[in-house]
Specification:
297 residues, Rossmann fold, 2 domains, 7-stranded mixed β-sheet
């Protein structure tokens, strides 16, 4: 099968399409024939060597939408089922989801959405799970206030929708041009990037603002970031943390239900064939992408 890998760190040109063996599922695993796989910033970070380091051949891709075509012993999934899944791990020594086939644990899988195609479905697992698990850490109640930085991005956008659905009063921090977008996602208020914002009960820092974002948190409030171990030091009694996203098929199934009900919306910025992975990485590096790019094996 074909798979996108990195053998030496660098720019988009560091991505290679290689031929490799089709993986076989072990006990408690399934193999997915990938129809679409989102390209995320973490893939660019792996490609450039910004996270992890090390050497050898590294697979790329966390999100997959496709069809189960083989199962290992002990799996409850049936061959032919349309699914979405999160293939967790920054430094994959075997191919990730940017490949024709990928093997994942059965517990990381959920039935695919019924209301969107595989391309849109592939943008859900990593970004929506990150958003909902970050909200779990903040532990807010209905009526409390939350400021989301990077609200126009994929994680931030899902965070706005999920929090608003929970009855939380959301302020979306984004660029002026994205005001209509983020309020359309359910934000009660908009704050332009670079402007002053009043203190909130919590901040979900999808834009990785860092310590500066603590000025928007009230005393004894809460802050959660999206890059592991990069939380700022606590001040004024503020509880700080970062989310380390985990694969969770049951929680992913809940997110699929919210997508099918219209509570969540997916955004696709463009598609590329797997063979054009270099061009996809180059487009991501240009910036200004609203939604996710997806690779089609």
């Amino acid at each position: 099968m074909r798979a996108a890998v990195v053998t030496a760190f660098g720019g988009p040109e560091a991505v290679r399409i290689v031929e490799t063996e089709v993986p076989e599922p072990a006990a408690g695993q399934v193999r997915i024939k990938v129809a679409a796989a989102a390209l995320n910033p973490v893939d660019a970070m792996v490609r450039s060597g910004a996270v992890g380091g090390g050497g050898g051949r590294l697979g790329l891709g966390w999100d997959a939408a496709g069809t189960i075509d083989a199962t290992g012993p002990g799996s409850d999934w049936a061959v032919g089922t349309a699914v979405v899944a999160l293939h967790h791990g920054v430094l994959k020594t075997t191919p990730g989801t940017h490949a024709e086939y990928v093997v994942v644990d059965s517990a990381a899988v959920a039935a695919a959405p019924k209301t969107v195609d595989a391309v849109h479905a592939s943008t859900l697992p990593l970004n929506a799970l990150t958003a909902v698990q970050a909200l779990d850490l903040l532990d807010l109640r209905p009526g409390q206030t939350l400021l989301v930085t990077g609200a126009a991005g994929a994680v931030g956008g899902y965070a706005v929708q999920l929090a608003a659905d929970q009855g939380i009063q959301v302020t979306a921090l984004a660029g002026e041009a994205d005001a209509e977008l983020v309020t359309g996602l359910g934000a009660a208020r908009f704050a332009a990037r670079g402007s002053a914002a009043t203190p909130h009960d919590a901040v979900l820092d999808a834009a990785v603002v860092g310590a500066e974002a603590l000025q928007w948190v009230r005393d004894e409030g809460a802050y959660t970031g999206v890059i592991t171990q990069l939380e700022p030091a606590p001040v004024r009694g503020i509880r700080t943390a970062t989310v380390s996203v985990t694969a969770d098929g049951a929680r992913l199934a809940e997110l699929v239900t919210l997508l099918d009900s219209g509570t969540l919306t997916t955004r696709v910025a463009g598609t590329f064939s797997l063979d054009a992975a270099v061009q996809a990485h180059a487009r991501l590096a240009e910036g200004g992408v609203r939604g996710r790019l997806a690779l089609l094996p």
